[in-house]
Specification:
The protein has 283 residues and is of the alpha/beta class. The chain has a domain at 92-272: 3-Layer(aba) Sandwich (Rossmann fold), CATH 3.40.50.450. The protein contains seven helices and six strands. The longest helix is centred in the first third of the chain and has 36 residues, at 25-60.
Length: 283
């Protein structure tokens, strides 16, 4: 068999469009129109398929656009707070040069105690209170002392209940230890807050002989605070400007003596205070 015969067996059994010239003219026109419609439909279908394929591939790929970094769920208790009641004076400008022995300590790191220390036990209220603790630290920074400030920068609200309880336990333990070791505890009641924890601490330490209180008449429980302070002989002021001086006076009353250079006379070493805790037992 010849090669021509072989190829002839591969020809399609149906009539090809190349042979459509043998059809009547009208039939050829109709056939051509059908072919054009059919091929147009195929072209559109292929175009749409390609577009959808490319879109699917694009969606499957990681986005190249920069994504916003999600902030951890929580409360930033160290963010700026507007002083709507003008409770605080401005920060000194320029800021004073801190004494070489001055330390400002925050939780949960163990405090670096000097011989004398101050604890800032006033309003925080999960960051609602004005930033009085920082200003107090600046106003006392010329002294060779430690200021322990419980206002930590961020509280993570996304913690589970158990984890949050453990974190809260560590925070409270840090505060209680620093309170026990403090020579002076200074209280500032922000008039825009309720400050229940500050009231709790005031009751806990009112009779200790080592607290100084600042509470303006606008505070919602100022009467209770003032009467309690009068009862226990607690130094009491109504403006923040008076508070640093009252704290420094109490430090000196407790033995802090400075030389002409502002250095502590004698060794500036801390000796841990032993605190007896009364434990009530059920009968």
């Amino acid at each position: 068999m010849s090669l021509a015969a072989d190829f002839s067996t591969l020809q399609p059994a149906f009539t090809t469009f190349a042979r459509a010239s043998t059809f009547p003219k009208s039939a050829v026109v109709v056939a051509r129109q059908r072919v054009q419609q059919f091929t147009g439909h195929l072209a559109r279908s292929n175009t749409m398929a390609n577009m959808l394929s490319k879109k699917d591939a694009h969606d499957a790929q990681p986005s190249r656009e920069p994504t916003a970094r999600q902030a951890p769920a929580g409360t930033d208790v160290d963010s700026p707070v507007e002083d709507v009641e003008n409770q605080l004076p401005p920060f000194p400008n320029p800021l004073p040069t801190p004494h070489k022995d001055f330390r400002h300590c925050l939780p949960l790191k163990r405090p670096e105690f000097r011989k004398f220390s101050v604890f800032t036990a006033g309003s925080i209220e999960m960051g609602k209170a004005v930033q009085w603790q920082k200003l107090m630290a600046v106003r006392l920074s010329h002294l060779p002392i430690t200021v322990n400030n419980p206002r930590r920068g961020h509280w993570d609200n996304s913690l589970s209940k158990d984890a949050a309880a453990e974190e809260l336990k560590k925070q409270i333990a840090w505060e209680l230890y620093a309170l026990e070791q403090a020579d002076v505890i200074c209280f500032f009641f922000d008039v825009t807050t309720i400050s229940p924890v500050t009231l709790l601490e005031l009751g806990l330490w009112a009779a200790s002989g080592k607290i100084v209180v600042c509470c303006a008449p606008k505070y919602h429980r100022s009467g209770n605070v003032k009467i309690t302070c009068e009862h226990y002989g607690v130094p009491f002021v109504t403006t923040f400007d008076e508070l640093p001086g009252a704290v420094e006076k109490m430090l000196k009353d407790k033995g802090m003596a400075l030389d002409a250079n502002g250095d502590l006379i004698g060794p500036n070493t801390w000796k841990e205070k032993k605190v007896e805790k009364v434990v009530f037992k059920t009968v």
